[in-house]
Specification:
Helices cover about 25% and strands about 25% of the residues. It is an alpha/beta fold. It folds into 2 domains: about 45 residues, no CATH class; about 300 residues, Aldolase class I (TIM Barrel). The strands form 5 sheets. The protein has a 10-stranded mixed beta sheet. It has a 3-stranded antiparallel beta sheet with strand order 1-6-5, with no helix packed on it. A hairpin with a 5-residue loop joins strand 2 and strand 3. Helix 3 crosses helix 4 and helix 8 packs across helix 9.
Length: about 375
C-alpha cells in the first residue's frame, strides 16, 4: 500500500501510434503527451503511462447525515464520513462544488490519509459508512477502491456520489466495492450534457442500467433542476418514463433546487413550485419514492407508502421524525414492502455536520476537530 500523497500507477490506458497515451477510465478518453494531465487534472501521463496524482490526498473530511448525499433509503439517520479529492471529468457550468471539482490538485488537497486511517476513523467516529463525494470518485478510482476494501474489513459500508460518466471495464471494478450510489442524472438531453457539462448522456444511462440490473448496489438518482435549461414538464416526463421503464418504480428520485454558482450566475434559483411540479409528474408516472431537495419542504422530503399513502418516514431538514416502518422494512399500516437498505429503526445522527482532521500516523489516533 503506498503512502498517502504518493503518485500511483493505473491500469485503464493504452498507448497510441502517435506516441500519446489514452486514458480509458471514462468516455472522455483523454489522449495525452508525457507530462500532460487530463481534463480531470488528477490523472496524468508520466513515463509513458497514466498515473493517479492524488492517491491519499483529500480536500477535507466531514461527518454528515447520510440523507445529505442524498440517500433516503440507505441506513436512514446514520452518520457518514464524507471526503473528496480535487478535479472532475465533467465541466458542468453550474457546479455547486466548483472550488473543489475545478481546482488544480495543489489548490485544495491539504489533508493526507491512507485507507486504513480513513476506515479506522469511520469506525471510531461511529459512522455506518464512508462516502466518496464533493467531486466524482470515478477520477480517484484506485484510491476509492483501496479505501472501500479497508472499510469493508471493518464493517463500514461505502457510498459513491457520481455522475456515472465512466467506461464499462473500470465501472465494473468500481461498483464491486460500493454499497450504495447516488447518481446525478443532470438532464435528459444530449444537448444539455454537451453544452452545459461537456459530456454525453448515453454513457450515463448505460451506467444506470448496469448498476440497477447487474449489481447489488443500492441506487438513488438526483436531478438539479435549472430554470429554462432542464426543468420543462416535457423533459421531466420523458426522463421519468425512461427511469420507470429501465430502472423500475422503486428507484428513489430526488429533484433539487439550483442556486446560482460558478459559470451560471445569471439564472435564478429554482422555485419550490418547480420542484413540486416535477415530483408530481414522477409520482403520477408511477414512481414510488420521489423527493424535493435544497428547499424546505417536509412533505417532499418525507417517504410515503406507495400502496396506502400513509406516512412512512417524516423528514425535515435531514432530521427524521415519525418512523412507521416495521422491522422487516414494511409499511406499518398496510404491510407493503419499502425498497431500500434498512437495518432496524432509523439512527439519531440528525442534521449536524462535524468537520474532522485525519492524521496518517501508523498506530496513531484520529483527531476530530
Amino acid at each position: 500500500m503506498p503512502a498517502a500523497g504518493n503518485i500511483v500507477p493505473t491500469k485503464y490506458w493504452h498507448r497510441l501510434d502517435d506516441g500519446r497515451v489514452q486514458c480509458d477510465l471514462c468516455p472522455r478518453e483523454c489522449k495525452l503527451h508525457d507530462g500532460q494531465a487530463g481534463l480531470c487534472f488528477v490523472r496524468a501521463c508520466q513515463g509513458g503511462e497514466i498515473v493517479l496524482t492524488t492517491w491519499g490526498r483529500s480536500s477535507g473530511y466531514c461527518v454528515d447525515p447520510i440523507e445529505k448525499k442524498p440517500l433516503f433509503h440507505f441506513l436512514p439517520g446514520t452518520p457518514v464520513l464524507s471526503f473528496g479529492t480535487a478535479g472532475c471529468n465533467l465541466a458542468c457550468r453550474f457546479c455547486q462544488n466548483w472550488d473543489i471539482s475545478k481546482a488544480r490538485e495543489d489548490d485544495v488537497l491539504a489533508d493526507r490519509a491512507g485507507p486504513e486511517t480513513i476506515a479506522r476513523a469511520a469506525r471510531d467516529l461511529g459512522c455506518a459508512s464512508v462516502a466518496f463525494t464533493y467531486n466524482d470518485p470515478i477520477i480517484f478510482h484506485e484510491y476509492a477502491i483501496d479505501v472501500a476494501v479497508a472499510c469493508h474489513e471493518r464493517g463500514v459500508r461505502t457510498v459513491a456520489v457520481s455522475s456515472g460518466y465512466v467506461n464499462p471495464e473500470p465501472r465494473a471494478e468500481f461498483y464491486r466495492h460500493m454499497d450504495a450510489v447516488n447518481v446525478d442524472l443532470k438532464a435528459f438531453t444530449e444537448r444539455f450534457y454537451h453544452r452545459i457539462c461537456s459530456a454525453g448522456l448515453a454513457p450515463v444511462l448505460d451506467t444506470l442500467r448496469y448498476i440497477r440490473h447487474e449489481t447489488d448496489v443500492w441506487l438513488e438518482l438526483t436531478t438539479l433542476l435549472i430554470p429554462d435549461e432542464n426543468d420543462s414538464s416535457g423533459e421531466i416526463e420523458i426522463m421519468v418514463r425512461w427511469v420507470f421503464d429501465n430502472l423500475g418504480p422503486e428507484v428513489p428520485m430526488h429533484f433539487t433546487a439550483f442556486h446560482p454558482a460558478w459559470k451560471m450566475l445569471d439564472r435564478p434559483p429554482t422555485s419550490p413550485a418547480t420542484l413540486r411540479r416535477a415530483r408530481g409528474i414522477a409520482l403520477n408516472a408511477g414512481m414510488h419514492y420521489v423527493y424535493t431537495g435544497n428547499v424546505h419542504d417536509p412533505e417532499g422530503e418525507s417517504t410515503w407508502c406507495h400502496e396506502c399513502g400513509g406516512l412512512l418516514v417524516a423528514r425535515d431538514g435531514y432530521r427524521i421524525g415519525a418512523w412507521n416502518l416495521t422491522d422487516e422494512a414494511c409499511c406499518a399500516g398496510c404491510k407493503a414492502p419499502v425498497a431500500g437498505r434498512f437495518e432496524g429503526p432509523a439512527g439519531d445522527w440528525g442534521p449536524r455536520s462535524l468537520p474532522v482532521r485525519l492524521r496518517d500516523r501508523e498506530g496513531g489516533h484520529t483527531a476530530a476537530g
